[in-house]
Design goal:
Blueprint: H1 5-17, E1 24-27, E2 37-51, E3 56-70, H2 77-104, E4 114-118, E5 135-149
Parallel strand pairs: 1-2
Antiparallel strand pairs: 2-3, 3-5, 4-5
């Protein structure tokens, strides 16, 4: 297995792009996302473990999957509820799609080595929504383990 972050980014984008209701999927955060419900995949942090014996490099790479819903300036209560329900459905569909796909990629260097998925980021007060927010955001963190020799 090799280190291959671009392949993981692409695989996650493909999954996000296939979710019902997501109008646009991106790798990298666009300046002005197009669509009401969008998915964005970005590179997160990494933990590296160098096993000097055998020259083995192990990496737990984190990839952020963001779902965003554009509310606009004057969103009423019904629009806000629709945004929350659409994001909840997108998160559920993504998780099922990702773990289903993992079964077919089990010997692959992309998503076959999913170590864990952290969906606790929205608990962070920085992701709390306040009146006036024009874009609702829900982040997930996908951790993928990879190894290579050097």
């Amino acid at each position: 297995m090799a280190l291959n972050s671009p392949a993981i980014l692409s695989a996650l984008k493909t999954l996000v792009d296939g979710i019902s209701g997501v109008q646009t999927a991106y790798v990298g955060m666009p300046q002005a996302p197009a669509g009401q419900l969008v998915g964005v995949v970005t590179l997160g942090g990494q933990e590296i473990n160098d096993k000097a014996t055998g020259k083995l490099l192990e990496r737990d790479a984190r990839f952020r999957v963001h779902f965003g819903y554009a509310l606009g300036d004057l969103a009423d209560a019904a629009a806000v509820e629709a945004a929350e329900l659409a994001m909840a459905a997108a998160v559920d569909l993504f998780l099922v799609a990702m773990f289903t796909a993992r079964e077919s990629w089990i010997n692959d260097a992309t998503l076959g080595n999913i170590k864990r998925v952290d969906v606790s980021a929205p608990d962070d007060p920085r992701y709390a929504q306040w009146p006036g927010d024009e874009f609702r955001l829900y982040p997930l963190l996908v951790v993928v383990s990879q190894r290579t020799t050097y």
